[in-house]
Amino acid sequence: MNTTRRYKQARDTAIAAYYARLAELSATGATKETALRDAFATLLTTLGRERSEGAWTFQHEYGVGNRRRIDGALLDAFKIPRGFWEAKDQDDDLETEIVQKASLGYPLRNTIFEDTRTAILYQNGSRCGRYDVTDRTQLTALLETFFTYTDPQIESFEQAVAAFQQRVPELAGGLEQLIEQERTHPSGAFEAAFQSFLAQCRTAINPNLSEDAVEKMLVQHILTERLFRTVFKRSDFTHQNAIAEQIERVVTKLTRRMGGRDAYLKQLDPFYAAIEAAATTITDRHAKQEFLNTVYERFFQGYSREQADTHGIVYTPQAIVRFMWASVEHVLQQQFGCQLATPGVRVLDPCTGTGNFIVSLLEHLHATNRAALPAKYARDLFANEVMLLPYYIASQNIEQTYRELSGTYQEFAGLCFVDTLDLYEGRQQQLGLFAEENTARIQRETAAELTVIIGNPPYNVGQLNENDNNKNRTYPVVDQRIRETYSQASQATLKNQLYDMYVRFWRWATDRLRGTDGIVCFVTNNGFIDGFAFDGMRRYLAQEFTTIYHLDLHGNVRQNPKLSGTTHNVFGIQVGVGITLAVRRRAADEDAPRPPCTIFYYRVPEFWTANEKLAWLTSTGSVANVMWQPITPDARHTWLTQGLAADFESFLPIGSKVAKAGAFAEAQAIFGLYGRGVATCRDTWAYNYQPVVLRRNIQRLIETYNSEVDRWKRRADQTARVDDFVLYDDKRIKWSESLKARLQRMTYIEFNAAYIRTSLYRPFCQQYLYFDRALIERVYQFPSIFPTPASEAENVVI
Predict the structure, then answer these.
(1) Gap between the Cα atoms of 276 and 274, Å rounded
(2) What are phi and psi for residue 241, nearest 5 degrees?
(3) Which pTM does this prediction carry?
């Protein structure tokens, strides 16, 4: 069935359902708008979803400025309103109501006014039709006219989107070339400024930050500064924000010889103008929040995709943010006898992104305790961000929201441009090299006693491909704390997952409360709930907190291939998601024995769509209204014990650490040796079904590697970083950490046909493997299990 025919069938079904619902309501004597309007809202919701193949959503009570709300709006994927709807009572004079609403500034761009009998449609400020909606033919005509209309501003926006996708990548590449040219210019002015800025970035953000990443930072600043400045109506932003002001100095030197930045970017004026015009159509704060996030993700994130991957960028839907704040508020009142508005209840969002959590909190405070807002904003709220563009957006987003709520502008002094985990590393005293004002903010935050730590930490575990030259940095202090706690208490052999970024943030947040009462509320990968490697983490969470709530939102596509990340995951990703709220509350008598941690668990239906999950969060409100299941961990710190056999511990293990260490007799294990398979880090090169092809691939890789050794020997800059130096070409070589280390030792590799071995690639795929220690990242126990090619026939693995 083609798309048009399917839509017409869906439209006819929806209209029939609308009339049926009105008939039910009329039978009860309902005539008021509040009783009747849900029928038309359902009709618009259904047809909006069908017309756009799921891209449009219907929002009730959409803000249209100055605290006015229209009954509903259809929003596209960018959260731009495509149409509005206002319902009236059957007893109202529809014409009089329209005049009144228009005088109050209600939109007339594509707006339906209706009272279940008559509908009047306005488009582009003018009336375009009056319809008898009791007549199916006229109702159908109304809906078709409504849904097929595109506002001229939106049409310009869509055209600009297409132009952007073609032109901006080219322009960004041109800027990168310009930076390279200016860095080698005889005057040396730009290179000096760049090196100074690079050193400051490495000190303040990441000591492993590459020159390429800083160049992309400058490109992003140049391309986006005007857009966000204009959208937020902040012409003075680059002068008021300490970080932006410092970057502007470098940019000024870069663009001086090309006639200035405006001249260079003139070709993008149509795109900027269209984005800015589209932004003016959005008056609802929540919708503007999502619009900015969508613009950022769709367009600008692509210019720092590697950096975004390193930091696990996933922006949080508003339904999740509001649920988390309402939950924190409930727990503060229930267990601590205070509120978010209470003076001294200090809050930190350690990975603020574009500022969603702080913006939502400001709105919550304005709605619940308006008088407390100024003091909280000035003294009790903190947020950190380590990526430049989100930091810019967060700064303007938070400050603009406060201006709209309070009527006055005030800089948000709680926002820091810093890597949160660096504050745990004791590096905060060095951060003054970046900006004096930023350092003062960091010091104030570091000294604060926090009550609530809330947010969406990065999810990623590490670089998947060394050729991406995109290493996640290490955090020695945090990682040592993980080794002392989560790792030390784990029974698992492989513990790499314990150094995932979200686990690091749990360890940091627990310690950051400094032993005081408080709350940690994170939305994260939910793998720690039942993952074997996380048994030690679960043990310490139960020791270090008194109450834990975990809401399992599912969405793990890897565990259940029937799920779709796009459809079923609230972030559109592949890993499962959960919201965890952990409470630490000390007993009144500090000498009294600490009661065991109370753990509550709830899982939404696995096959709910993302929209159904978000709608459930909105309707549920907070943890106060969830049907929690109390869970009791077993001796192995397993939280989800349903279906597990109680006698599992009595079974003889296949292998154990004790047996592997040499005490086989005492271990009572079946095998004394076990291990992972070979980890090559270059499977597509090191494995093949045909030995001839394998030989050819390996010889090409070795030839490329040896050429790089020669080039490394001849390098002029002896301080060059190997990550920035080597050739990245997946068709010629696949780098790994150990191979780069071998290159730095200037050690050549020779091909040896004797290294071609028979192997099982995955359980049932027999292939040939080039088993050379120089090109194998980890061999584990295989030199013991299969020490020689002959042993492959002698030692049988089942």
Answers:
(1) 5
(2) -95, 125
(3) 0.71
